[in-house]
UniProtKB/TrEMBL annotation:
This is WD repeat-containing protein 48 like protein. WD repeats lie at residues 145-187. Keywords: Repeat, WD repeat. It comes from Dufourea novaeangliae (Sweat bee). Signal peptide: none annotated. Pfam families: WD40 (PF00400).
Length: 323
């Protein structure tokens, strides 16, 4: 589907009935899944008077203990963090950070989220009280690098921990944090992140990094030790990567620019399962959707690839890639 301006970030809603797209002027549009029609526009007076690019958009992970609230949270380059109730097109609350806010990540099972930005810091919020609980940052020590030194573009909570998360950015490090401490505990070096390119397996044991670099852009790391497990070269096409996620335990997906490419990679063979090249823009964002009903009856559910959405330039794509 085509949009009237560049799409910078996107996500599915909790029930996978809409795709939510954040645009360059701060407008957030909702599209009915499997339709070209944009049915809702989210934009308040603040965004209309002072347009600012949408930098990330997410919803709280669906849990049995967490009722579906039909909300999405967006971050903006002007420092705003806005939670939208999309059926009513109402902004429920706004947090105003004094920085460029660049990324957003939700805790996997607690009502908390973090934002990242251009001040090298990570802010932790309680979603229910809408208060900032902690700021993660480097100490003043010149002997240890216990935090970021430049822009932070992404963060990811460990799904098996109540307190642990990782982050990445321009300073070529992945930092490991504990929400009870302000400084990073350890780091991985040599990974240049420019988008939402970090993910952790559901068992909490492996990290995926999809980096904006020519050498070894796709790497898997051991979470516990921080040691490199493997650098993947799934095909002969080089790309500077912005985004990447585990799709299932057997597949990952990633996208980037120069070459503008989106691909799904088989983690067993380390080969590309499917790829779209020479898109009209870089792939800045992607999200994992529902399993297509026609594939849902397969006996080996781990081999079924859910639908995936991604954006490139002014277009939003939904793909169904099956082995």
């Amino acid at each position: 589907r085509d949009v009237d301006q560049d799409v910078l970030c996107l996500c599915y809603t909790e029930t996978h009935d809409y795709l939510v797209a954040g645009l360059t002027d701060g407008t957030v549009k909702l599209f009915k899944v499997s339709s070209d029609v944009d049915v809702l526009t989210l934009r308040d007076t603040e965004i209309m008077q002072k347009p600012s690019p949408t930098t990330a958009i997410k919803h709280r992970p669906v849990q049995k203990s967490h009722p579906i609230k039909r909300t999405v949270t967006a971050t903006y380059a002007n420092g705003c963090v806005k939670c939208w109730h999309y059926p009513s097109s109402q902004c429920l609350y706004t947090i105003r950070e004094k920085r460029q806010t660049l990324g957003l990540a939700y805790h996997s099972h607690l009502p908390k989220f973090v934002t990242t930005g251009d001040d090298a810091k990570i802010y932790l919020y309680d979603e229910e009280t809408k208060t900032q609980e902690r700021v993660f940052h480097a100490s003043e020590s010149v002997e240890v690098m216990d935090g970021h030194k430049s822009r932070v573009f992404c963060a990811c909570f460990n799904p098996k921990s109540a307190h642990e998360l990782i982050s990445g950015g321009w300073d070529n490090t992945i930092q490991f944090w504990d929400t009870r401490q302000p400084y990073a505990l350890r780091r991985i070096s040599g990974v240049h992140m420019c988008g939402d390119g970090l993910d952790i397996t559901k068992n909490g044991k492996e990290i995926l990094s999809c980096a904006w670099q020519r050498q070894n852009p796709i790497q898997l790391w051991d979470y516990g030790s921080g040691k490199l497990l493997v650098s993947l070269e799934p095909d002969g096409h080089s790309s500077l990567l912005y985004c990447g996620k585990y799709v299932t335990s057997m597949f990952l997906a990633c996208g980037g620019m120069d070459v503008n490419i989106f691909r799904v990679v088989d983690l067993r063979s380390h080969a590309t399962l499917g790829m779209i090249r020479n898109l009209n823009g870089g792939v800045y964002s992607m999200d994992i959707g529902p399993v297509n009903p026609k594939h849902a009856k397969k006996t080996k559910t781990a081999t079924v690839v859910p639908q995936i959405a991604f954006c490139a330039g002014r277009r939003i794509f939904e793909i169904d890639a099956q082995p």
